[in-house]
Queue: 2 jobs
Job 1
Amino acid sequence: MQLKSQKLKYIFNSVVLLFIIVYPFLMNMSGYWMTLLVMMTIYGITAVALNIMIGYGGQISIGHAGFLMIGSYSVAIIADRFELPFVITLLLAGIITAFVGLIISFSAVRLKGHFLAVVTLGFGISVPVIALNWTSLTNGYSGMLVTRPAILSELSLYYFIVGCTVLFLWFMYNILHSSFGRAFISIRESEIAAQSSGINTTFYKTLMFVISSFFTGMAGGLYAYWIGFVGPTDFPVTISFLLLAMIVVGGMHSFYGPIFGAVLFSIIPHFTDEFMGITNIVIGLILVIIILFRPEGLVTIVDWFKMNKTMEKADTISKERGS
Amino acid sequence: MLTLDKARVEFGGLTAVNDLNMEISKGQIHSLIGPNGAGKTTVFNTISRFVNLTSGNIKFNNENILNYKPNEVIRLGITRSFQNTELFANMTVMDNLLVGLHPLTKKNIFSTMLHLPSVRRIEQENRKKTIETLELLQIRHLEDEVVKNLPFGYQKMVDIGRAMMVNPELLLLDEPVAGMNNVETKQISELLLRLKHDFGFTIFLIEHDMSMVMEISDFVTVVNFGKKISEGVPAMVRNDPAVIEAYLGGEDVSHA
């Protein structure tokens, strides 16, 4: 049974990957459609990274757009001032963002619940304001142009971003399905039991912040390279709420849930943007419906199908035995 | 092995533990009994460092426990279970026990991220050890069950199992058979005796089931209002008039 489910997961992942590879050709190399998929990958990385803290570790954060912005500005500033290989630039963006995450975590690990929410919200609000006002570094309201690496065409940059996404998701999957992931979950479930099992909760909460901000910073860096521009209005605090909605709608106690959420909420604006202001209403409605009828998120629909299948099988067996 | 020297805990005006002196010897099952509110769990909480002493000292193998944080006590070789099971309710039985192995597991974030063979090997070894513990507890069939879905008796078993994972020198068990039926109680009694004889565990036990305490304990300490009122081998404590008076209001302890 477990082998079969693993095989299905493998087939599903392969089909999705194949689709993403041929996607630019299916869409006639349209920049719009490629951007739509790139945004899905960027939000996918960020939502999974945020879910390390919220879904796995039970540490609320509603300021993750701030980390996205730091990552994107880091790439813009480094690429503008230093002639470093773009992979190094991207890695540095992740490290800088992780360092900021580390600083935030010093106060955040001592807080819980809504106190932590307020601190992270404050961070998410502050970053765009700093980006706007620190003109000597960020160019203020005018934003910064990001030169695409000369060796990369639009198509190869697309594949680079997809490759990075797969790699980053695999890294996070490995962390979450290891003793680190179990330590994170144990803190969410019972800090007392976690401590008595030898888990240094302060250290692991800090680690969650650092890992989460590192990958979010890298996602921000990928965004900067793809769009070719970063400005102080790119990641307002509403993006932090959108990321939170992705996790809730997709399913926060699952690795794949936030990815579903990211895909869904990246597609919705495509259909709703022509109707002024309706996008947020649709997102809000979906959020309410999910919280009311499937609070564990969309990902549990897969479990529901599995359960129905098992029950059908059990029915068939009992009928056969009866006859 | 474990020495409490004039241990005192005050919560505001209330003295929960009152200058308690105790000595737990290696390889014994030592029970701590007393009426509800006598301060037994507070004693456990001070040893596991969740509660600070107001005055006094606690030493384990001549090491001052007070220098350690709650998450560091396990490194000394002390683990505990909880009166109201503190489990990771949404995790499976297997994962709950694997968390118990956390202090012994070598971890490196980079090799974990890359899922290197060394990480896979350690994970396999840990799972093997967990399965052995599950078999010892006779709950192997529950390994993939989510803990919150289990009956209370099994949850208690998981709580004990998690505390056993690091092969502690001293195992603190807070009412391990509370809420269990006679069969389950007997099973736990047998398990504790086996842990003592076959694995050399020292067990410090809080329990209200007197027949179990009298049957398996090597030594019993009785507290009331945080103060020690008696201690000795079960046969002696059972007939101590102070215990009968304070603990049971006149009845024979063995019939409680």
Job 2
Amino acid sequence: MKKLATYFLLVIILVSCDEDDGTPGPGPGPGPSPGKVVNGWAVDLVKVQDAGGRDIIPSIENSTFISASQVSFLTDNELVIGININGDIRAYSHRILDLHEVSNETIGGMPVTVSLCPLTGTALTWDRTINGEVTTFGVAGLLYNSNLIMYDRLTGNNWAQMLSESVNGSLICEEVDNITVVETTWANWKSMYPQSLVQSTDTGFDRDYNNLPFSSLVDPNANPLFPATPEDDRMPKHERVHGIIDGDQARVYPFSNFEDSGTQLLIDFFGSNDLLIVGDADRNFIVSFIDPNSTGENLEFRPVQNGGEVILEDNEGNRWNIFGEAVSGPRMGNKLTPTHSYMGYWFSWAAIFPSPDIFTGGSDG
Amino acid sequence: MKGRLLLGSLAIFAALIPALAQTCCSGGVPISANVGLPVDGAARWQLALNYDLNTLRTFKDGDRTLNDNSRERKTHSVLLSAGFNVNSRLSINSLVSFVRQERRITPLNFPETFNYSNGIGDVVILFRYRITNPLNNSRILTLGAGPKLPTGPTDLQNEQGITLNADMQPGSGAWDAVFWANYLHQFSFRPSLVLFSTGTYQSTGTNPSYLGSLRYELGDNMRLDVGLSDRINIGRLILDPSLALRYRVAARDKNQGQKQENTGGEWVFLIPSVSYSISNNLSFQFSMDLPLYSYLQGSQLTPSYRINTGFYYVFTKKSDLIAPEFK
């Protein structure tokens, strides 16, 4: 159980998908598949785009790792994807995954797939054990509303990254288990986890990792490179936001909520949960957890400034790290329940989860 | 003399069957530069039917070839070009293509995938005007311009009903303007030896419905060819070999007004070619584009080789076979 506490597993939900007769119709709409399958797809096929064919971008199968102190190919402000499974702490850079998008790994003894869609700015990690069988994922060469579609090599199903589910194939509408990731700058990550292993540029592929093909998307006002609808102009299209998903709804938390100096804590209620949202604009991270007080606990959380990996403390004297683990105090070893959430460009949240709420309330710390 | 120059021009035409189209990961449909039929003689019709194969399997970053042979793009084109010389100065050329795009990915240790599409490509119409005196065949300067019409489809789908990527479509979806100039110099010490130079500039338009709703513009591109052609008689066999160098530069594509990464670059090709005169009216030609140098913006597939072969037919009257100096 302790091992299980180091990561979050979303329960596999088999959504009932009714096969349609294939005639054009409203289909499942732009959001997550609510159960309508048309022509074998659980999403609107009009919004599925060809992006070069299966494996046009090669997934990494044999990563090598170096220690954080050995890393010289990253600059302080660029983004990395941090993962902590059973105390096995790894970092994957956008710089490398921009050119591969998928990396099949075993972290902390768990077979996982780390994926990054550079078009939507979304990084997720999936358990790649599906129905008891271990598979690997590759780039399907397709996009759904501009977002990465992967295929699994065991069944050939096509899986939409932001939906975390099969949208085409024998496992259609089946979801994968998400593992919590933390996206932040390299400088912040290495200050929090100097012991971290970092995926090296020795990926087995001859690539120039100084080539940054998506650098233009850093501009919040840049336009998407592929169609993504519906559009929503409430924020710049490429503004990075933290999104929390509840069913087919989403609420996003822009960095503008965390512009005051230091680490901030927001308290919110979304879906059926009280939430703790912790962010720091300077350190470039936003993470979120289910507030344990909603299940009968009585903890008063406060953000911790300059605490390294520790971002929260409470009235019992527990100190909680960025993965929601109590690293000291009477509850040491416990873990806050993470939300189903990740970072991503605003336009992609608006396209995949239409009309998402935008949190504009103040912070609680 | 006139017939000799005509055939010399034909050799040049044969040497200058190039690509002038998409760059990003695209096989490139060899459209506008194929409209280079010789301007020679009034009221003369010309036809050329060519097959062109452009193979891209070299993956480069900048000027460095990457050790990755997992991707291959091929563009097969059948090109029908028709020309009419209104008079000894003015001619009209048109070109229509039938295109087959192929994409093959062979990742290490994983199954190969293959996709293709077929269709009529875009059409080019070029109006050309011979600047220099039509009676002086030792130096010929011809200028031309015309539109490329977006006649080819841009919405072909794969077997699953998913619209294929732009580089797999036969058409570009955009109106382009093509500007063309050709200079021929016949040497007095060896009249069959011809120096030729052709420049083309393609000012590309915008496809307003790329993937349904985006505005996509392929990068403007320019090419310059310089070469020599000569005639060799081997018994009754008349051959016109030529050798040319081509420099081509393409600007980066724009998507929604933003410059696209991994598009655009510079290329230098060596183009050996030979034309065989089957009769006074009919000839057969074969040429290859061999890449000598390229510098690509970012990482791209780039042409590994191109072959072009076909027939050229000119409709002549008996009086055409009499050189003007003897008329």
